[in-house]
Amino acid sequence: MTSTGLFITLEGGDGSGKSTQAELLSTWLTDAGHTVVRTREPGGTELGVELREIVLHRRGHIAPRAEALIYAADRAHHIATKVRPAIERGEIVIQDRYLDSSVAYQGAGRVLDPVEIRNLSLWAAEGFMPDLTILLDLDESIGRERLDEARTKYDRLEAEAHDFHARVRAGYLALAEAEPDRFLVLSATGSIESIAAQVRARVEALLAA
Ligand code: TMP
Predict the structure, then answer these.
(1) Domains along the chain?
(2) What is the rounded distance in angstroms from the CA atom of residue 183 to the CA atom of residue 34?
(3) Mean pLDDT (whole number) for 95-100
(4) Could you please report the per-residue DSSP string of 107-165?
(5) Distance of CA 195 to the CA centre of its chain
(6) CB-count burial class (<10 Å; 0-12, 13-18, 19+) for 193
(7) Tell me, what DSSP letter sits at residue 33?
(8) CA of 205 to the centre of ligand 1 (A)
(9) Which residues line ligand 1 (CB under 6 A)?
(10) What is the pLDDT of residues 178-201, one digit of tens each?
(11) Main-chain dihedrals φ then ψ at residue 94, nearest 5 degrees
């Protein structure tokens, strides 16, 4: 089967289960005969792996605007060299995190101007937007509990305080409200299978359209 090029992103707080859902969706689409590219930001390219290491694991302070620029640099290279070419070949890209992460984390979380952050990403990615964004919405305290069970060490963003993650969540919900056609908002507290079924239904509709 030839795939229709499609760009699907997954968003949500840390511990919301994005990677699990991305994996399930990817397997389902691959089994149906589509060519799928699974990728993520930051870190979807060789350059991105180095930028990810800096932005998430470098010891010491990184100024908020510098942090925003590192994510934007990762995004610019990723979209230009990997994502856009795949979509132009008619493939389906399933990506953990995209520009909505920057608006939620650097905008709402770090309290930078969300419009400026969005415009920075749009410039970096030459305006490239997802066909569908799945937001796995989760109370930040539950996200924290899930991370506590899964991690022995936190990265720079995960280590931020409760308030930061509460602002990120609110930032995401505001984004979804502003673009209801692009976003599918699902509660991340549902079972893995019920979330996966709702994701599949939406993607099926998109492929049929
Ligand atoms: P993850 O790949 O494990 O989700 O970790 C990426 C971290 O980086 C996560 O805490 C969210 C954060 N992040 C931003 O702050 N801004 C961004 O633009 C992106 C893509 C991620």
Answers:
(1) 6-208 (3.40.50.300)
(2) 22
(3) 98
(4) IIITT--HHHHHHHHHHHTTT---SEEEEEE--HHHHHHHHHHH-SS--TTTTS-HHHH
(5) 16
(6) exposed
(7) T
(8) 29
(9) 14, 40-42, 56, 71, 96-97, 101-102, 105-106, 157-158
(10) 999 999 999 999 999 999 999 999
(11) -115, 115
